[in-house]
Design goal:
176 residues; mainly alpha; Helix Hairpins; rod-shaped
Length: 176
């Protein structure tokens, strides 16, 4: 009988230690999975934060592109307006030069009129010379604004590419 009791105690002890061994292995597996989930969550949160930062940068860069485009549009508008005004000044200059050539009145009133026409022609020529300089400056600004727009668009393109890469990375991690 004593042997039977010893055998029962041995069997119960063996069952308990087997159960404890299985429980320990199960808990180790659960712990490993929790660790992996934490790591995946950290990676996902980091990627999401990076994506948010890039989206914000894209928005800022998009605004910079719009401002550069506005500068170009404004410069083009000013250049066109100046060219229109130049045509008008040239027309008035030629008209006054023709009037001056036709002026042949030798009287005092004719001499006064001739002097007025000469002064007007001189003012138109001076104004056109100044406008030519200003127009060159505007053309230089337009060229500079065009270059700045290309730079800003390039930056925006790089940011959008980076955002696309992050999107693909997130998509790939979703499939895992």
């Amino acid at each position: 009988m004593r042997c039977l009791i010893c055998l029962a105690v041995a069997l119960v002890s063996a069952g308990t230690s087997f159960a404890q061994s299985s429980d320990a292995q199960g808990l180790d597996g659960i712990r490993a999975e929790i660790r992996q989930l934490r790591q995946d969550l950290r990676t996902l949160v980091g990627t999401a934060q990076r994506a948010q930062i890039i989206v914000a940068r894209v928005q800022v860069q998009d605004a910079a592109v719009r401002r550069a485009q506005e500068r170009i549009d404004d410069a083009k508008t000013k250049v066109v307006a100046m060219q229109d005004e130049d045509r008008q000044l040239n027309f008035e200059l030629k008209r006054n030069e023709q009037l001056l050539e036709q002026q042949d009145d030798p009287s005092a009133a004719g001499a006064k009129r001739r002097k007025e026409l000469e002064d007007t022609v001189a003012r138109f020529k001076s104004a056109l010379e100044q406008r030519a300089t200003t127009e060159q400056e505007m053309q230089a600004r337009l060229t500079e604004a065009g270059e700045q727009l290309r730079i800003e668009q390039s930056k925006l393109g790089r940011l959008q590419d980076e955002l696309d890469r992050l999107d693909k990375s997130l998509e790939a991690s979703d499939h895992r």
